[in-house]
Fold this sequence. Notes:
Shape: globular
Structural class: alpha+beta
Amino acid sequence: MFDPVPTEIRLRRTSRMLEVSFADGSRFELPFEYLRVHSPSAEVKGHGPGQEVLVLGKENVGINAVEPVGQYAVKLVFDDGHDTGLYTWKYLHELGRERPAKWARYLERKARERPNP
């Protein structure tokens, strides 16, 4: 897998999207909730396979800041206080490419956790 090179990153607070463009021509709009529940932090990913945590209640989460980390990542500062986990360019590209499948899996897990009345 190549290392994606970002060309632009935009925080769109009104639409609650992080827009990321890459040198390969790809452009992704990533909802804040999607980014929060797929945080690369240990809090969400756990410390090994099978330790992932289902994060709920983040439908209205905001992002206060996007902080660069060297040339390889950004730190997203969410308004719920979460600011751990570095979103590498490679991981953001993966989140964009795989958004339909990852989002569908999240919604399925969420529905099982919170059955409709």
